[in-house]
Design brief:
- The chain has about 60 residues and is mostly helical.
- It has a domain at about 25-50.
- About 55% of the residues lie in helices and about 0% in strands.
- The chain contains two helices and no strands.
Length: about 60
């Protein structure tokens, strides 16, 4: 994975890509707000590890 620049735009672009790649059957889960926040926490954890860059939590 290419390391993204330290900017809010890059972070949101990364999340958009990750969410877009999630299987379609998970869409029903996203009706639950808790599921959405848990998913974002998992994605952000993965992002920090793969990029080896620490971003300030927005």
């Amino acid at each position: 994975m290419k390391t993204l620049k330290n900017s809010k735009e890059s972070i949101s672009q990364y999340f958009s890509i990750k969410l877009h790649l999630l299987p379609k059957y998970t869409n029903s889960m996203f009706q639950d707000i808790e599921t959405i926040s848990k998913t974002f926490r998992l994605l952000s954890k993965n992002y920090y590890i793969t990029s080896k860059t620490i971003f300030e939590v927005i």
